[in-house]
Every structure is written in structure tokens, then in C-alpha cells.
Amino acid sequence: MKKWVVLLLSVVLVPSAFASDLALAKKEGKANFYANITAVEPIMQAFTSAKGVEGVYVRVSTAKYLATVLTEFEAGKLQADLLQGPLPILEMLKGKGVLTPYRSPSAAGYPAWARKDDTIMQFGIEYVAVIYNKDLVKPKDVPTRYMDLTNPKWRDKIVMPDPSSHATTITWLVGLKEAKVFPSDKAWMDFVEGLAANRPMFVKSFSPTPGPVESGEKLLAISMPKYIITHAPAPLDWARTGTLLGTPRGVAIAAKAPHPNAARLFMDYWLSKDAMKLLADKVGEYVLAPGVYPPIDGIAKAKVVPIRELSDAEIRSWGEKFKKIFFAR
Amino acid sequence: MGNKSALTPILIVIVGFLTISPVLMLIFGSFSEGFGTFSGFTLSKYVEAYTDPELSAVLLNTLVFTLGSAAVATALALFLSYMYTRTNIPFKFFFGVISIIPMMIPHILFSISWVLLLNPSNGILNRYLMELFELKKAFFDIYSLPGMILVEGLLDLPVSYLIIAPAMSAFDVSLEESSRVCGAGTLRTFTRVTLPVLRPAILASVILVVVRCLASFSVPSVIGMPGRIYVLATHIYRIISTGFSADYGKAAAVGMSALAAAILLIYLYRYLTSESDRYVTISSRGFKPAIIDLKGSKYPLLGFVGLISFVLIVLPVLVLFYTSMLPYVMVPSAKAFSLMSWRNWLEVLEDPISLLALKNSVMLGLVGATLGVILSIFVSYVIVKVRTRAAGVLESLSFLSFSFPGMVIGIGFMWFFVRTPLYATIWALLIGYIAVYLPYGIRPLSSAFVQIHSHLEESSKVCGASSFTTMRRIVIPLLIPGILSGWILMASIFMRELTVSVVLSRPGSEVLAVQILRFSEDGLWGRLSALGIIMILISSALVTAASFLGKTLAKGRSPAE
Questions:
Q1: Which of A99, A206, B331, B417 is the most buried (most CB within 10 A)?
Q2: Do A63 and B246 touch (CB under 8 A)?
């Protein structure tokens, strides 16, 4: 009898609680989403039309992320309801008391490691791969393992972010070592030195990497497969070099969110299969919602692994080491 | 000009408020252990920044880059403005516009255009020249210091041109005539008379371009980084981007050297032009700029100027248009031409954020430039005509925000505005723009003021005119070329401003450059180019309207009448 009462109450009360949350969120009107992830406008529009609450996307670049959020937070003017960014940044914000816990029901099917705590929810991996111009690189020449990048035939034909300063690239290079992608540390160092010997062209981040490959200025890029979707119909493909690595992307709710109900509503929507499918389909992102993959040939079968977060001190120290290797004259 | 003794402190307060606040925030940040707030004094950021073994190489590159760009911009501006203002070369209006087009192009787009033209692998111009001359190696590698100097010099050509052209047009030809009467040839007259009289304008141009280059980021990142040539701005970017908690304090500490260099340059400029009477050329009713007949060399020179303009300016703009019609970046080929469409243009014109950004940028360009020029008139007057120690302070203050590397000063403004109710509004952008780019108004106006002798004002007062009437009837009409230059410089800069906007722009206060940056980060080069061209067209319309208005006003209110 007692069980039946609990069940009855939950059937009646839970939907009404949702309904009242939705009403409160609608009353608040909007949810401000501070994010470093790009091209998410389709998801913001879908959220606005599905829920009747405006999703406002505020793009903040990684280099200015902490400075912007902490400046606003310390002045009591943080306008963000939700914060999306690389996991290390969200960890620092959590340490400063900027974030608040929230366990979204939409996160139920996500891998356990993606929900280390109730504050930061990991929803995707900023995956890195070798991409190439499929009009200019013959199928037999496409690299099949990372070590192929050290072949002298790729001299002056590779573009990549500056490995002495670009945090994600530094983390990726170290990740290849730590994930044991190479049989030994020496083999990994041979790869790093071989890659440097091929004199890659450096750009400031991943976003300028596909341009020179599309135009034929370079043939290969250490870049992100998502550009195959966002730069379509450019003749880009990714090289199946083995395990793909990347830094986890996280999302959290601000402790003093100006629109707390809208924030929770947005979080539930963002983590839902519908939103993650949009993120995969339209933006080419690698997401953690079970069974959802970007429509890039072969990605569903690829092994994509999150890299250990490096501390800033580690990033700077490795950056100095890579500077000596890649900038040696 | 009213009460001179009261004007200087009032202006020091206004300009100081505009420029000191963000710089002060950065100075605090550079001495602070904390992050964005002042918490515990430390010198460690300076020690780290200035004991970096790479700094000397970076400073040497910076020196070559800034001086080289200033030389290219100033030499080209001297040549073009001489042709435009002092000769009877045909199609003059065309040259006037072509010299200021680079001002309206977003720097990142201009740099990318040059990479597409002159990269050593498959640059369009390089490939053409290699085929033409059967070369085995690329004709020119854009990823080099000369490549950086070429592109930055061109980007800063409008700054130089708009400072030198008004001075050139106010030149008293009787000085040159006297030189010729004494037996000097054209070249000797040019080097011994024309150039020395134009010294304030030439120095102003060199200083402004050097300071601008110190803060420039597009050319160093798009062209310098791939060539592994690091200058101060990219060195600072490395400091900021290595690691997730960007050390803006250390970046500000490095930026202080740019600030010190700028202040030093301003004092050097004041010293070199200290006897301002030597440069006065409009002193009596006999003033009349004269036109030199080029005779037989008219058309060869026209051809030469046309070729320079085509290769240096028209070609990159054509590349932009070509890119705007393509779905992705491609070198010209049959496939590329078959894929051309107006899709990128339609997407930009139907994008509500792009349209809002367009509206906001036009508003900021019109209102900001007008307010900026009004402030600049007063500041320039004090700098040139009062010339006290306080006037020197005012001049240095006006350069404070301008000389800081862009990405750092943006953060300084954010640290400042977040403590005010203006944060996240369009008014914060307006104030920030005027504060940073005040020298663009002050430089051309100062050059114009230098050439107006105080006898003119004194004569007006002797005849019974009030200070206001003297200003309205005598000074302002003679200043119109300078006012016009300042307004055009400010309006076109505000239309494409990125540094301050990228930090302060929020939903509702989006501006064009931030939208262009978004397209760039998403790699949407087609949309980026389409929006860039729309920006160039709007800026050109503004400049044309301003030039027309300026000419009408100058005719209607000539002081000689």
C-alpha cells in the first residue's frame, strides 16, 4: 500500500514540478550561455523554439575565458547562467566558487567518468586528428599511423597550431605519450622530433588549420575532424592513424545564475539526445550521449579517448620543451 | 580659444579619465600576485618577462617590423599625397580613395588575401610569376619580415596619407619658388625645402605607424607566426595562450615596454618640432597651395601610380570578392569558377546578428568619430598652441591606451568598465573606442594646427572678433582638411574595431569586427569575405560623403573670403 502511495504521488507531483519549473523558466525569459564552443547557433534556436525560453549564446574565446568570467564574478556582474568550456577551466572556476552543483536527469546514459561530480558535466571531447586534402593526397599516401607524419615526403606540407603555446596541442602531444599510443617513450620522442624535422607551418590555434589544406597550400593538418562537417564541401577527410585523443568539454551552472530555472532547463536540453544529435550533425562534435556520432565516415568506430588534464604549470613546462624541439634552427 | 589656462586642466581630466583608467588597471595587474584584482605586491611578473632569453630577438624583430612598416607607409603616403595635392595628375579623386581603402578592410582579411597571393607553396601571384619567368622557387615568400613589413605598411598607408595630405595641401608654394629663384633644381628643392617643412607631418606619420605596429596583431599572427617570426604582440599572445589561466599581469608587464617606447617617441617628436614657428606655412592672406604641371611625365606617372594601386590594393580586394563567391578556399581553377555562387552573400544578409552588428557599427562610426574629432580639436589646440609642460602631459595621456598591445588593453577596459553601470552596453564600446583611438584624431589636427600662424587669430581679435568668432571664421575653415582626415580615420577604424569590441561586446551590442572574428573562428571564409566587402562599401560611402561635405564647407567658409 505504502509503495502504491509513493508511486501515485510521484506520478502526480513530478510532472507538475517540471511544469512549474518550466513556468518559472519562462517567467525568467532567457538563459545566458557563456561558451568557447563555436557554431552552436542551431542548438540555441532549437532550444528557444522547443521551450519558449530564449537561449542566448555569448562566445568567449579560451584565452579570455577565465579573465572575463572571473572579472565579472568578482565585480558581482557575472551574467552567465551556464558556463561551457574546457574541463581545466571549469575546474578552476569551481575552485573559485563560480559554479553550483546540479545533477541533470538528461545525463543518465552518459559514461560514469563524464560525471565525476555533480557540478561539472562532461558532454564531449575536443578530438584531434590528422586531416588531409583528399583531392591532392593519393589514397596510398594517406598516413595510417602517427609515425607516418615523420616521413620526409611531408616536409613543408603540414600545418598545425604552435606546439609551444597552444594549450590543446601541447596537451595532445603529451596525451599521445601518456595514452601509450607509441610502444615506448623513446618512440614517442622520435615522433615529436620527426614531426619537427618536417618543418610544419604554425598557426595560432586549430581554427586556421583547415584553410591552408583546403586551398592546397599544405596537404596535411593536425586539426579536428569536425571541420569536415563545418567546412563542407571542402575536400577534407581524416587519416585513420589509430586512437584519437582530445580534451573533454564540460558544462556547469553558475552559482549566482541570474536565471536559475532557465539555466536548469537549458542544461537538461543541452544534455538531451536531441541537442547532442544537433551538435554532432551540424557542428561535427564528438559527443558523449550514447549512440550519437557525427556524420563523418568511420568516426563511429574510432577509439576516442579523453586526455588527462594538465595543470598550467605542466602546460608551460611542456611548451618550453616543445619550443626547443620545434623551433631549433 | 577662450581661456587657455582653464582649458588644459579640463582636457587633462577628460583625456586622463578616458585613457588612464584601463592602463592603471593593467599597471596594478602587472604588480599583483592575484588575477584581475590587486592582491599582494610582486615584481615577479616583470622579472619573468624581462629575463626571458627570447625577448632580445623579439625586440629586434619588433624594431625592424615597426620601423620598416613606418618607412613603407610614410614613403608611399608622401608620394601619393604629393601626386594628389600638388600635381595635375588625372583621375585624382580615384587616387585619394585608393590610398585610404586599406583603412576600411579588416586587417585579418587583408593579411589572408596576401597569403593567398604570395604564399611560397601555391600563392596565386607567385605561381603566375614562376610560370612567366620559369622560376623554380617562389618569387617572394610572404612569411618573412619583408612580407610582414609590406602588408603592415600598406595597412597603415591611410594613417600616413591622412596625416601628410592635409599638410601637403596647406603648403605655401612661395617657399619652393624662392628656392628655385635661388637656382635650386626640383629634387634639391624637394629635399631641402619641401621635406623639411613637412617634418612635423612626416614625424607624426612615422610615430603613429610605429605605435600602431607595436599594437598590431593580425599581420604578426597570420603572416609572422607561420614564418616563425615573433614580435612583441605575438610574444604577448604566447604568454596569454600558454595555459588556461592566462597571465595578463605578465602580458601587461611586457606591454609596458611598448608604452614606454610610445611615450619616448612622443617626447622625441615634441623635441624635434619644438620650434613650431619654423613649420608655419599659412600665415598671411597670400597663402595658396599651387599645382605643379607634370607635363610629359603626367601619363607615365599615372601608369606607375595605377600599377602600384592595382597590385597593392585592388588585387587583394579582388581576392576577397573571389573568396566571397566560393564555398571554401580554393586557388583559381575551372572547378573553382564552376562552384561560384552568391550563397555567402545571401547568408550574411539574412543573418539577424550580422545585420544588428552592421547597424551598431555604423552608429559607432558616425557618433564616435564626431565626438572623437570634437575632443581632438581642443586637445590638438592645447598641444600645439599652448605648449606648456601640462600640454606635453596631455599629449602623452592621449597615447596611453593606443600604444598598449590590443589584446591587453581590451582586458584593461573590461577590468575598468565592469565597475561601472556601462558594462555590457554599447556606450562602453563608444567610450573605449574614443579613448584608444584619440591619436587618430589628434595627429592630423595637430599637423594642421602647426601650420596655422597665431598672427591670423591675433589679426582677427584686433579687428574686434570674439574668440568664438575667430575659431568659427578663421581657425575651423583652415582646419577642415585636418578635421576631415581625423573624422575619416576614426570613422573607418570604429567601423572595423576589434580589440576593444571583442572583450566588451555582448548580445545586443554586437559589432561588425566581432561578427567577422566569429566567421573567421568557424573558418567560414566566404561569409567573412562577403561581410568584409559590405563593410568596405559602407565605409567608402561614409568617406565619400564626408569628403564631399568637407569640400563644400571649405568652399563656403574660406577665410580668404
A1: B417
A2: yes
- Which pLDDT band holds residue B284 (cuts at 50, 70, 90)? very low
Per residue in B122-158, pLDDT (tens digit) is: 888 888 888 888 888 888 899 999 999 999 999 898 8
Domain that holds residue A101: 2-123+249-295
- pLDDT tens by residue, A278-308: 999 998 999 999 889 999 999 999 999 998 8
CA distance B60 to B548: 44
Which residues of chain B neighbour A64 with C-beta distances below 8 Å?
A: 246, 411, 502-503
Q: Given an 8 Å threshold on Cβ–Cβ distance, is B228 in contact with A327? A: yes
Q: Domain locations in chain B?
A: 4-556
With an 8 Å Cβ cutoff, are A216 and B414 in contact? no
**Residue B197: closest CA among B107, B309, B85, B278:** B278
For residues B116 and B124, what is the distance between their CA atoms, to the nearest angstrom?
6
d(CA B245, CA B178): 65
Contacts of B222 in chain A (CB under 8 A): 208
**Contact criterion met (CB < 8 Å) for A63 and B241:** yes
Its pTM stands at 0.80
Place of cell 560514469: A112
Backbone angles phi, psi at A209, to 5 degrees: -75, -40
Out of A63, A201, A215, name the one closest to residue B330 (CB).
A215
Interface test with B, best of A135, A202, A204 (most B CBs within 10 A): A204
Q: How confident is the model at residue B242 (pLDDT cuts 50, 70, 90)?
A: confident
**Number of domains into which chain A is organized:** 2
